[in-house]
Write a structure and sequence with these properties.
The protein is an alpha+beta fold and 232 residues long. The protein contains 6 helices and 9 strands, in the order H-H-E-H-E-H-E-H-E-E-E-E-E-E-H.
Length: 232
């Protein structure tokens, strides 16, 4: 994360950590090149207003160095700089995004540029109670991950893949959220591996109002305390 505004840098770094990325921060051009040379990051979020380095634009100098060819670069700025951001894609940037950062856009952009099987929506690590019912068999457990498309339920006895289930999610609301779902994969307990046992469940028949409510819940938990102070 390269931005001359140190507070904005810190807030963006916190958000990226919550999205489960390792983050290094540079608040000036020399630090950007020093850090990039030492750790060789997968991606740089580069503020377009970073000062010139050795008489050249930071983006231009990064792209002039063959050592950095594999690094993806996403330029960042406010909406009034939209034309500059668009021009940056012709100068070596792989993509651009505008502030205030939209967590879903930020996540999907990074995923698209760095992953072979990119995700389009962010996931939230959070623990809450959930009941999973398959026919007459039920599980009362805790969910440890949620997105607007599904949930991961921690349990030593997951249902088999493709099992149709009914879920009751104990999220902050006036009443528990009742949804239908399908088990899409399971993780068996293995004492020799440090993995969380359980099952991933894909929501079924989710109406738009509920989907948007889940999206708002996830994004507010990722960014709410940051946006209260400033837009990142």
């Amino acid at each position: 994360m390269a931005d001359v505004d140190q507070v904005r840098n810190l807030h963006a770094a916190i958000l990226l950590k919550r999205l489960e990325y390792n983050v290094f921060v540079a608040s000036n051009s020399p630090d950007l090149f020093r850090i990039a040379s030492s750790i060789m990051p997968n991606l740089i979020l580069l503020d377009v207003r970073m000062p010139f380095f050795e008489g050249r634009m930071c983006l231009e100098k990064l792209r002039a160095n063959p050592m950095f060819n594999y690094i993806k670069i996403v330029t960042v700025s406010e909406a009034p700089d939209l034309e500059i951001l668009k021009q940056s894609t012709g100068q070596g940037a792989n993509a651009y995004i505008t502030r205030p950062l939209c967590v879903t856009e930020l996540y999907s952009t990074i995923q698209r540029l760095t992953e072979s099987r990119p995700r389009r929506i962010p996931r939230l690590r959070v623990i809450f109670k959930v009941t999973v019912l398959a026919g007459k068999n039920g599980r009362s457990a805790f969910a440890t991950m949620i997105s607007e498309k599904g949930v991961f339920v921690r349990t030593m006895n997951p249902f088999e893949k493709e099992t149709e289930v009914k879920l009751t999610l104990d999220l902050p609301s006036s009443t528990p959220l009742a949804l239908d779902g399908t088990v899409i994969y399971q993780v068996k307990y293995d004492r020799d591996k440090f993995v969380e046992p359980g099952m991933a469940i894909l929501f079924k028949g989710l109406n738009e109002e509920t989907r948007l409510g889940l999206k708002k819940f996830i994004e507010s938990h990722l960014t709410g305390d940051l946006y209260q102070e400033m837009s990142i």
